[in-house]
Design brief:
- The longest helix has 15 residues.
- The chain has two domains: about 120 residues, Uridine Diphospho-n-acetylenolpyruvylglucosamine Reductase, domain 3; about 200 residues, Alpha-Beta Plaits.
- It is about 25% helix and about 25% strand.
- Strands 11, 12, 13, 14, 15, 16, 17, 18, 19 and 20 form a ten-stranded antiparallel beta sheet that branches.
- A hairpin with a 7-residue loop joins strand 12 and strand 13.
- The chain has about 425 residues and is an alpha+beta fold.
Length: about 425
């Protein structure tokens, strides 16, 4: 299998001088120890240059895909755990967990993404009470700059005090080889979609809408009359698991399956219309056996404090025409606060504004700059794996633990083996 030279969407071309696809951790350790500049490539679903390098690009796709469930190993939250090789995709992991009677607390929209890369960038699903995917991480095994294999643990050991800086680490501390995740008993979910939710109802009832199900997503194209679609994913064991009314907040219950992006086939999406099914076949929007869209796109995402979500949306209203002119679809979700230093939801419950753009970087970047200016009063934090134009001085005000993270880099990778242009120029500002 050849190593991809671009990201999934074809919007980033990797500049690596050399590419590698080790099949064992020992081979990986040798490559890292011999390299002057190294970056890891997972599933390639980032839209920023976070995985790019001019040195050695190491694909994790050749490594094993083992799943080791330990019902007796209790994490900090009191649940059993699973240890997985870093290259495994969430879709594959979820199916194997469900067969064993377990689940992850949440999943992202795409089941196609790799566990290690998703956690390293703070990628998330949705739900007022659901933290990002990285909040499930209780231990990490990684290869450090000298080729050593080190285990980092959340609960104990010499790294526990700094663990919050080592999970969402942007690939800058080492190459992750395995991850241990907290798991919960398997559960089932029903999914409904409401159409034509008026914008005035979204603004007036934002908290009610996002508290109405285990996981909620609102999609809009930012075109007048700004009506939205609402994806409701409800656990069947929830206390309020009632049949949905045909009308809700002036929106109407969909009678046929829909795709979040208008014009795309609903056959690519997970089962709707309230049909109950396993958690991993409902929480993502898309089925793992299908490409979720054409890939001909760019993506950006900004997280603001949840209590300011409606104000932040209003701040973008003057840009509606500019946004709509280059937009495929926008999605609004909620994420619970965490204590991971570089997480977009660090110490604040958040609302996430996600934008899927047409693949026209020249047209999109000025719109991002205008959006970031209008969202600045709300402390909007950009997703590390998506496109943004914010510079390091602004990022430093948004991520209060960024100086502590720089200290970690200086101590655990003083030669900058795992740094690249994205880390040096966009994050640290060197």
């Amino acid at each position: 299998m050849s190593i991809p030279r671009t990201n999934w969407a074809g919007s980033i071309t990797f500049r690596a001088a050399r590419t590698h696809r080790p099949s064992t951790v020992e081979q990986l350790r040798e490559l890292v120890a011999a390299g002057a500049q190294v970056r890891a490539l997972g599933s390639g679903h980032s839209f920023s240059t976070i995985a790019d390098t001019t040195g050695d690009l190491i694909s994790l796709d050749g490594l094993p895909r083992t799943v080791r469930i330990d019902p007796g190993r209790l994490g900090a939250a009191g649940q059993p755990s699973v240890t997985v090789d870093a290259a495994i995709r969430y879709g594959d992991l979820a199916a194997r967990l469900d067969q064993a009677g377990y689940a992850l607390h949440n999943l992202a929209s795409l089941p196609h993404i790799a566990v290690a890369g998703a956690c390293a960038t703070g990628t998330h699903g949705s739900g007022d009470s659901n933290g990002s995917l990285a909040t499930a991480v209780s231990a990490i095994e990684l290869v450090t700059a000298d080729g050593e294999l080190v285990t980092l643990n959340r609960a104990n050991g010499e790294f526990s005090a700094e663990f919050g800086g080592m999970v969402v680490a942007l690939g800058a501390l080492g190459i992750v080889t395995s991850v241990t995740l907290d798991i919960v008993p398997a559960f089932t979910v029903r999914q409904w979609v409401y159409q034509d939710l008026p914008r005035r109802q979204l603004d007036a009832n934002f908290a009610e809408i996002f508290a109405s199900a285990y996981s909620v997503s609102v999609f809009t194209d930012w075109r007048p009359p700004y009506a939205a679609r609402v994806w409701l994913k409800q656990r069947t064991d929830a206390a309020d698991n009632a049949e949905p009314p045909p009308r809700w907040l002036d929106a109407r219950l969909a009678e046929v399956p829909l795709h979040p992006v208008p014009g795309m086939p609903a056959s690519h999406t997970t089962q709707q219309l309230g049909v109950p099914g396993p958690w991993h076949e409902r929480l993502p929007h898309f089925r793992p056996e299908y490409t979720p869209s054409s890939g001909d796109e760019l993506q950006s995402e900004y997280l603001v404090p949840r209590e300011h979500a409606v104000e932040a949306l209003a701040a973008l209203n003057p840009l509606a025409d500019r946004i709509a002119s280059v937009l495929r679809i926008a999605e609004i979700r909620t994420v619970a606060a965490d204590d991971l230093w570089l997480s977009m939801a660090y110490q604040r419950d958040s609302a996430a504004f996600h934008f899927t753009w047409r693949k026209d970087t020249t047209a999109v970047l000025p719109v991002l700059a205008a959006m970031e200016e209008r969202l600045a009063p709300f402390g909007a934090r950009p997703h590390w794996g998506k496109l943004f134009v914010l510079e390091p001085p602004a990022l430093r005000t948004l991520y209060p633990r960024l100086p502590d993270f720089e200290d970690l880099l200086a101590r655990y990778d003083p030669a900058g083996v795992f740094r690249n242009d994205f880390i040096d120029r966009r994050v640290i500002g060197r």
